[in-house]
Amino acid sequence: MCGIYITNIPFSIQEINDKLKSIEYRGPDNLGILKKKSVTLGHLRLSILDLDHRSDQPMQFDELYITYNGEIYNFLDLKNELSQLGHKFKTTSDTEVLLIGYKEWGAGILQKINGMFAFCIYDNSKQTLFCARDRIGVKPFYYFWEDGIFEICSQLRPLSSKKEINKEAVSIYLDCGYVPSPYSILDGIHKLPPGHYMEIDIPSKKMTITNYWDLNKVKIRKIPYSQAKTELHKLLTDAVKIRLQSDVPIGSFLSGGIDSALISSIAGKISNTPINTFSIGFDDPKFDESKVAEKFTTYIKSKHKTTICTAKDSLNLLPKLIEVYDEPFADDSALPSLLLNSVTKPYVTVALSGDGGDESFLGYNHFEWVMKYKWIFKIPLFIRKMLSHSFFMKIIGKGSKAATEILATDNLNNYISKVFVGFDSLNKERNLKWLSHYKGYTKWSNDPIQKTADLNIKLWLENDSNVKVDRASMAYSVEVRSPFLDYRIVEFARSLPISFRYQKNNRKRILRDILEEYIPKSVFNQPKKGFSVPLGDWIAVELKDEVLRILSDEFLNTVPNLDVSKFKYQLNQHMEGNRIYFTNIWKVFIYGKWCEEFGFYDFN
């Protein structure tokens, strides 16, 4: 993978070089800077296809110049189509195909390409800029725009000088544990949403953003289950096949879950030689899935590497997390994700993963929450409010703040949104108007489970899962490719009846049935432990001194909109042995560490 940069701010070449050096891990194989008129393009390259320097970037074709991060998986088909139109190619890279494809089709290229990408193409003759981000938001795109002045980059750090903290973004972070697009943690810097492209006309100082892809209203196909399974298996096989194209060593992540097992199994069947698979295990059996993964390899016939780690190995990566994630990011699975990529890098540069399977095929616990409580919203709101302190509470959890919040929630759509942002906010004044950027889930389907899946894809997948994987892999110059994030699979899954994907005690039904063609159900049909760490214990033991250093009264009073007294109660409860608040404590702790890293607070 790579890092992109482009601006019309008159920085010196050395200043831009220093900016790119701050995220050099994204592309250690080449740093390129090119100045054309008022525009400077920069690029950090992680060489994957066509390792020759002829494919370094920024790349030129006629008066077009590109800086691009990603992979176009169907580039060979597009290259053949462009060749038939008379175009000649000097490289074997997908970058050149993307650049010439834009020359031929303009913005129409976006409807043709299948991949993960964030790119900018500068037209030197017209002095215009065309930028785009992939449909699912796998690759990051940050930008600053003010009265014709722009600066764009793959990460926030090179854009962060002399910027102030965005207070609204902090409030959102306190609810979500991440900062969703189009926001960033800093004022004036935004994220281009997935499935959008940006056009800038430099002479007229005009910028427009256009949506080129989105989830659509669900149309359920009336097909037999056996046909759906066959079609999905074929589609998954193609999604894996096109992601196996590489001029560097490639492998596959393998956990004890069915998603990575299925991807690795398909890859093993396609490959002419045994594939490389990688797992990390933990010395604590409560968090260890490595033995299950090793059983999978008997059937996949892969060359497998398991690295057993201690909890301390993950904890030692906390400084790395703060360094490479750029924004406050409180998903604790980022730590084992960093660990997995660190032990994989010595063997391969590209790795397949099972990310995205839970979102489209309904594997997460929050689908259970929606199934369990959706009936409540058939009761009128005024009755629910009256019942909130009565016998009715016994049904959904007497005395529970979450239960009270559920009863007081206006409607099912708002309940679904709170499944993702939480029922018990750390904010003094909670404002969820920002969710209007994600309101599509309320209209694309009438089914509560599909609504939940759609918000999962649009909000959590982009801003949590994809960010976690991108930063953790880029930190060690590894490219991760996720077949389940192929937009064709996302669209196909949404066309299937819920019963094909979700049944009580049989989540991801259709994936399990496909996997059974590779691995016996008795081997893979085991409880999922998740990619987790003993965070609650860390906060109270190993990290206690550091947590208390960061979460001082002086600092807490600087956190925008934080209910300090409520938070201090939760912190004290945790340290006294009540571990239920560790998620909230981790959020504020990570925010404090971020403030320290970026110079917004001096803890000395």
From TrEMBL:
This protein's pathway reads: Amino-acid biosynthesis; L-asparagine biosynthesis; L-asparagine from L-aspartate (L-Gln route): step 1/1
Stated name of the protein: asparagine synthase (glutamine-hydrolyzing)
Instruction: Please give the InterPro entries that the UniProt record associates with this protein.
Output: Asn_synth_AEB (IPR006426), Asn_synthase (IPR001962), ASN_synthetase/amidase (IPR051786), AsnB_N (IPR033738), GATase_2_dom (IPR017932), Ntn_hydrolases_N (IPR029055), Rossmann-like_a/b/a_fold (IPR014729)
Describe the reaction catalysed, as an equation: L-aspartate + L-glutamine + ATP + H2O = L-asparagine + L-glutamate + AMP + diphosphate + H(+)
Q: What is its EC number?
A: 6.3.5.4
Top EC class for this record: ligase
Q: Report the PROSITE patterns cross-referenced here.
A: GATASE_TYPE_2
**UniProt-listed Pfam families:** Asn_synthase, GATase_7
Please report the stretch or stretches of sequence annotated as the Glutamine amidotransferase type-2 domain.
2-203
Q: Which keywords describe this protein according to UniProt? A: ATP-binding, Glutamine amidotransferase, Ligase, Nucleotide-binding
Give the GO molecular function terms: asparagine synthase (glutamine-hydrolyzing) activity
What's the encoding gene here? asnB
Family affiliation = Belongs to the asparagine synthetase family.
TM ranges: none
